[in-house]
């Protein structure tokens, strides 16, 4: 059996490996010499023109029966290319990725391994992947039958999802908008701290927070450090937990108010209002001596003093700040067309308005629930619908191909 000479048609495993390895090396050299690929070059209308040109090239390649088309749509090429993309993915997981490597002098950063998705290696292999997917998708439509149609839907969906994510990077914009309560804001600031007007505005009606119950901890009165020093222990205040032990003290929760205000005479009363804070009346007894102390412990805030229970000259019992459970903003979004959308925005529950997605971003952490403003992250991504369309086609095509395969069984 005669062994096929290298670089003779049809190209197989060896040629695929060498070509992709060569592209990777070329990308690495470009990365070292010119720096990261600037996706901002692919902004509207450039990205639309390049995407259209790519589709046209894929269509005409699919109609040709030559070595290039056969190689781009071959199994050896697809597997080797997928292996190269998997290798880059592994590098992303093993090497910490940076937002930018512009001011770094590390060799890994200069070679692009700490900014994989913006490196020339990734761009070249990614472009080759799109060219292969597009050509293969159109090629399967040369013969019309159910299997080829389902195959086209599946692979064209993957093509659109990948293309939408890549070509949309140049048009994607992210801003953070700060809005005071009972105010309307439509301006943001870019990287140069220049004010920009957006085609939508946000009115903040109210900002509110919910908290988990706080914890109790023993501290060293001289240093303020939590005890024990090596591994501090905490007692979680819960409505059903009224007794426990912390260090060398037995604790008994006599009263606990999640919302309380100072009532005078060393007492607190339950009252849910702006400025209220958690408060607990604690009886702490020394396990060895039996000596006990009783008093109120509070976290305090900008309107109330912190209250601690002083057990002796060395120890005091204090309450930690309650961790935020959720924070919400009651807002109205006003579009350029005059449409008004009233909603309650919270973390992990964004609002989509056209090509904009609005996320709850933050608040004044020093003031907490008393924060008089809320911040929102606004993401503009007009290509997201192309990605969604591709993912839907990919899922439908996969289901159809599985159904067709089961039917043949």
List the helices and strands and how they pair.
Layout: H1 13-34, H2 46-63, H3 67-72, H4 75-94, H5 107-110, H6 120-139, H7 146-167, E1 173-180, E2 183-189, E3 195-211, E4 215-220, E5 235-236, E6 243-246, E7 249-264, E8 267-270, E9 277-286, E10 292-298, E11 309-310, E12 315-319, E13 324-335, E14 340-346, E15 351-353, E16 356-363, E17 373-380, H8 384-408
Antiparallel strand pairs: 1-17, 2-3, 3-13, 4-5, 4-12, 6-7, 7-8, 7-9, 9-10, 11-12, 13-14, 15-16, 16-17
Question: Could you characterize what this model shows?
Answer:
This protein is an alpha+beta fold and 409 residues long. The protein has 8 helices and 17 strands. Helices cover 33% and strands 31% of the residues. Strands 6, 7, 8, 9 and 10 form a 5-stranded antiparallel beta sheet that branches. It has a 4-stranded antiparallel beta sheet with strand order 1-17-16-15, with no helix packed on it. The chain has helices at 13-34, 46-63, 67-72, 75-94, 107-110, 120-139, 146-167, 384-408, and strands at 173-180, 183-189, 195-211, 215-220, 235-236, 243-246, 249-264, 267-270, 277-286, 292-298, 309-310, 315-319, 324-335, 340-346, 351-353, 356-363, 373-380. Helix 2 (46-63) packs across helix 6.
Structure described in brief:
With 409 residues, this protein is an alpha+beta fold. It contains eight helices and 17 strands. The chain has helices spanning 13-34, 46-63, 67-72, 75-94, 107-110, 120-139, 146-167, 384-408, and strands spanning 173-180, 183-189, 195-211, 215-220, 235-236, 243-246, 249-264, 267-270, 277-286, 292-298, 309-310, 315-319, 324-335, 340-346, 351-353, 356-363, 373-380.
């Amino acid at each position: 059996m005669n062994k096929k000479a290298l670089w003779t048609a049809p190209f197989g495993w060896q040629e695929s490996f060498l070509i992709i390895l060569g592209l990777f090396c070329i990308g690495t050299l470009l990365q070292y010499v010119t720096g990261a690929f600037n996706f901002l070059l692919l902004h509207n209308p450039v990205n639309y023109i390049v995407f259209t040109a790519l589709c046209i090239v894929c269509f005409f390649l699919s109609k040709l029966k030559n070595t290039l088309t056969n190689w781009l749509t071959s199994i050896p090429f697809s597997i080797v290319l997928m292996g190269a993309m998997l290798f880059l993915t592994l590098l992303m997981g093993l090497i910490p990725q940076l937002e930018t490597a512009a001011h770094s002098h590390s060799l890994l950063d200069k070679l692009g391994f700490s900014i994989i998705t913006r490196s020339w290696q990734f761009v070249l292999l990614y472009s080759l992947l799109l060219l292969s997917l597009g050509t293969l998708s159109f090629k399967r439509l040369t013969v019309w039958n159910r299997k080829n149609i389902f195959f086209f839907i599946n692979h064209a969906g993957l093509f659109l999802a990948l293309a939408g994510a890549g070509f949309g990077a140049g048009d994607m914009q992210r801003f953070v908008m700060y809005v005071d309560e009972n105010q309307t804001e439509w301006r943001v600031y870019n990287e140069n701290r220049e004010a920009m007007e957006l085609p939508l505005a946000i009115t903040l009606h109210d900002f509110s927070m919910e908290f988990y119950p706080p914890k109790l901890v023993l501290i060293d009165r001289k240093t303020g450090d939590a005890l024990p020093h090596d591994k501090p222990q905490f007692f979680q205040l819960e409505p059903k937990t009224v007794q426990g032990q912390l260090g060398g003290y037995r604790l008994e929760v006599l009263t606990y108010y999640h919302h309380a205000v100072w009532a005078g005479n060393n007492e607190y009363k339950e009252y849910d209002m702006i400025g209220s804070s958690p408060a607990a009346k604690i009886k702490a007894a020394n396990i060895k001596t039996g000596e006990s102390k009783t008093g109120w412990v509070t976290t305090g805030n900008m309107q109330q003093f912190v209250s601690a229970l002083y057990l002796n000259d060395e120890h005091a019992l204090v309450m930690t700040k309650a961790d935020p459970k959720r924070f919400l903003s009651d807002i109205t979004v006003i579009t350029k067309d005059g449409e008004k959308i009233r909603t309650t925005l919270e973390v992990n529950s964004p609002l989509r308005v056209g090509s904009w997605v609005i996320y709850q971003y933050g608040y004044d952490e020093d003031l907490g629930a008393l924060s008089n403003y809320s911040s929102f992250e606004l993401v503009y991504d007009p290509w997201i619908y192309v990605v969604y369309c591709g993912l839907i086609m990919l899922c439908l095509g996969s289901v159809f191909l599985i159904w067709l395969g089961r039917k043949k069984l």
